[in-house]
Structures are given as structure tokens and as C-alpha cells.
Design brief:
Layout: H1 3-14, H2 16-21, H3 26-40, H4 46-62, H5 65-95, H6 97-100, E1 108-112, E2 118-124, H7 129-144, E3 148-154, H8 160-172, H9 178-186, H10 194-202, H11 209-216, H12 219-235, E4 242-247, E5 253-256, H13 263-274
Parallel strand pairs: 2-3
Antiparallel strand pairs: 1-3, 2-4, 4-5
Length: about 280
């Protein structure tokens, strides 16, 4: 980029009026991330900066619509990038669909009807507030649609506590108590750390504590979580919860890339779409 272009961009970022006008917009967010690099790549004198700053300030005050046009352009570019990313994810889902919907792989938790005609795969983790809310939604859907199978794929990128909770549920599956454990964690009023989860486990008379704790030490659970991380990376999904809904033959597949306030309806629509 030419030197004068760097300066103009730097001055636009520096203007207080611009900051007030476009605070927290994609335009300002993007420019703020560039600011430090721009400053390091210019060597104008303070007098030059002051002179050009006055010119740019006057121009922008007389033509503020330029800033709004720039913000609109950046929004359009971001929307195009998001659309392209979703298309890549959809293509990756087709590529990895056998792995995604394989209920027999280690670390998969099966809820609902194990032989269900429709499967909802959820990439999830217990430290994610939206994932906790989605558990209630999925439980409601199972009641309405007995033909639904849910495969929970734990992707605990939020840290050690999330991985610990995931292993607790996976280990509980050996006692056929995976849903009990998942509901206990997700329905708790707070996000649990390791010590709090241990206390919760100790209170559950329905679980054999020694079997559970021994099972959580099984190295195969760590390997399963690593495989889940790799799958999420290959799919290029960006967060939890992510839902993938398909019919039994995997001929119709729908992606719901994130949790929204309309998540329940989106899942219901996806179920109808893949029938």
C-alpha cells in the first residue's frame, strides 16, 4: 500500500468523531486491529500528521456518508466470507458423514431412540451456557419425536473442566447412566469446575462411584476426545453447539451452525426437512 494511503487510513482511525460515529461496528473493529501495524509502518513527522489530519477531519465532517459506506462494504464482505465458510462446512459434512454419524465410535453418547430414523448430531461441551440450554431443547424434542436419535460429540475446547465433565458422562455410559449424568451437569444452575463436579458425583447414589472414577481414567476417553477435536477441525466448525441433522440413509443432511434464540424451531424445521 502506498505511504499516503497508510496515513489516510491511520488518520481515519485516529479521529474521535469517527470512533463515536462507528463505535463497535465491524468497520471500527477491523480498523482497530490494523492500527498498530499501520503506525509501525509509517514515519511521518508530527507536523505532517497534524496537517493531513486537519484535511481528513474536515473532509470526513463534510462527507460522513463515506464512513457509513465503508462500514456497509465491510459488512458485505464479512457476510460473503460467512456464506463461503458455511458452504465449506456443508461440503466437509458430506466428506466426513460416515464418521460424523457413526454411533459406535468411542466417546459418542447416544440419547433418544438408538434405532431412530432421524439423527441429530450435536458438537457440545458442558462449560458452554448455550449447550446447557440446548440440552433442555433436545430433551423436549425427544418427547415429541420418539423417532429421533441424538449423538452427542463432546468437543471440550473450553478447558480441562469441560474435558473432565465430558469424561464423566462417557464413563457413566458404561453403567447406562450417560443421560442421567449429562442431565445432572447441564441442568445444574452453575457451570461446574472439577471440584464441584466431584461433589455432585459423590451425591449420586445411582452411580457406582469407584467404577465411574476408574472409567474416567481410561486413556481411551482422552483418545476419543482427541478424535472429536480432529473431526471438528476437519469440518471447520467454529463453536458449540453445532447441530447436524440427517435421515437414516444420510441422503438428506441439514446444518445448524450455532445456537440462536430460535434454536428449537430451527431443529424442528431441520427434522421435517430431512424426512
Amino acid at each position: 500500500m502506498k505511504k499516503i494511503h497508510w496515513l489516510i487510513l491511520l488518520l481515519i482511525i485516529s479521529l474521535g468523531a469517527t470512533t463515536l460515529l462507528l463505535k463497535n461496528t465491524p468497520f471500527m473493529v477491523k480498523l482497530k486491529t490494523m492500527r498498530r501495524g499501520i503506525q509501525n509502518s509509517t514515519n511521518f513527522s508530527s507536523q505532517q500528521v497534524e496537517s493531513i489530519e486537519k484535511i481528513v477531519h474536515s473532509y470526513l465532517m463534510n462527507n460522513p456518508e463515506i464512513l457509513l459506506e465503508m462500514d456497509k462494504k465491510i459488512r458485505e464482505q464479512e457476510a460473503a466470507k460467512q456464506k463461503a465458510r458455511l458452504e465449506r462446512i456443508k461440503a466437509n459434512i458430506i466428506k466426513y458423514r460416515n464418521e460424523i454419524f457413526d454411533a459406535q465410535l468411542p466417546g459418542r453418547i447416544i440419547l433418544g431412540n438408538p434405532e431412530g430414523e432421524i439423527t441429530i448430531v450435536e458438537f457440545t461441551q458442558h462449560q458452554c451456557p448455550a449447550c446447557k440450554r440446548s440440552t433442555t431443547i433436545l430433551n423436549d424434542i425427544i418427547k415429541i419425536h420418539p423417532e429421533i436419535r441424538i449423538i452427542a460429540i463432546y468437543w471440550p475446547f473450553l478447558g480441562a473442566d469441560a474435558a473432565y465433565a465430558a469424561k464423566a458422562v462417557m464413563a457413566a455410559q458404561k453403567q447406562n447412566k450417560a443421560k442421567l449424568m449429562d442431565d445432572l451437569i447441564c441442568n445444574h444452575h452453575r457451570t461446574l469446575d472439577k471440584a464441584q463436579l466431584d461433589q455432585l458425583l459423590a451425591e449420586q447414589s445411582e452411580l457406582d462411584q469407584k467404577t465411574l472414577l476408574d472409567g474416567m481414567q481410561d486413556s481411551s476417553l482422552d483418545k476419543a476426545l482427541v478424535a472429536n477435536f480432529n473431526l471438528a477441525k476437519n469440518l471447520e466448525i467454529s463453536g458449540t453447539p453445532t447441530f447436524i441433522v440427517a435421515n437414516k440413509a444420510l441422503t438428506k443432511i441439514t446444518l445448524i451452525p450455532e445456537y440462536t434464540n430460535n434454536c428449537k424451531q430451527e431443529l424442528m424445521d431441520a427434522i421435517n426437512d430431512v424426512k
